[in-house]
Amino acid sequence: MTSYLLRGVSVLGAEPTDLLIRDGVIAAGPATDADVIDAAGLVALPGLVDLHTHLREPGREDAETVETGSRAAALGGYTAVFAMANTSPVADTAGVVEQVWRLGREAGLVDVQPIGAVTVGLAGKQLAELGAMATSAAGVRIFSDDGHCVADPRLMRRALEYVKAFDGIIAQHAEEPRLTEGAQMHEGEVSTRLGLTGWPAVAEEAIIARDVLLAEHVGSRLHICHVSTAGSVEVLRQAKARGVRVTAEVTPHHLLLTDELAASYDPVYKVNPPLRTAKDVQALRDALVEGVIDIVATDHAPHAVEDKECEWAYARPGMVGLETALPVVLSVLGQRWDLIAERMSRTPARIAGLTGHGTDLAVGDPANLTLVDPSARRVVDPSELASRSRNTPYAGTTLPGRIVATFLRGEPTVLDGKAVK
Ligand SMILES: NC(=O)N[C@@H](CC(=O)O)C(=O)O
What is a single molecular function from GO for this protein (predicted)? Predict the structure, then answer.
């Protein structure tokens, strides 16, 4: 196994030093046999961990496969991604989660951890085989019907009770379906102007409020996917102050983009939950810095051309995000490396109970890390994305930061900004 010496690297923004990678771990001592990488001006971060990725395999391999999504993740600086269950067939059995887990191992570009569905077929009627998925080779800990809300409160309570036995987590897509029937975008001034049916903030906030009470009652762990409104932040703030075991994520796009973009009627801006107002964006940024929102998760949602390049009402919601997440977060937070490592690597790894990722990059830690050039700026070109889909809302946008290299257990997955395999 090749050893690497990262010469003059800044670990999390600290003074430049030499970092040696040997036998898959961060090592100390002489490095006579190592390949030297000139890392002057580059910042090393623990490899990013994404708790919310859609990989589309099995079922929609035309939009993404485990392999193409893994490559996009590595190029974005990720060393672990959690694959959502809304595949076809749905990942609601031990067989499907093991298939996704195995495909991830075969691709070998990031650690792919499957998320299991909460209910059979995401239909919200009957609990899926949570125990069988937990004890499968994939060792599922996080369960989610993402794309759909577990709307039935009794089923949600049962799911929370069930996963408590193995310290599992229910990750809720918070959307009261009766309040969002026919919804196309955020309900507000812009939707009124455009004549599009609105998705009100309260549809998200009402489910979060209900579920933090259920999680408190049961004493179980709840995670809220893609928080998008200022009101949701307030509900989470109160729940956390009371000691409820709830964690929450925000997507890069909800930290940057607003509902005004829908005025273009370009479905690239159609996403679930929808882009909200500038006031919501500010509240989400503040909550992320403060820690009321624990992590950034991409909600990478690749879609085939025919599902995106059509009339707004017929387009599928979702945006690709793995390859632009860190640049977007850098543009929002600035070069606050410790905060970025906390929100994009350490805390997601801790929430998921994932060992070996999200470390301090100390001697002996597994060499899961990414090297960033913070001075580079890049114009996003959809044709250059490694994802099989092109539905990025940042085409033509200049974003700061370039991922130069990524290492998974000491093996490079990205070098010189290019995927190694
Ligand atoms: N986030 C999205 O806009 N889309 C997700 C599922 C969903 O949450 O609707 C997808 O799977 O495409």
Answer: dihydroorotase activity
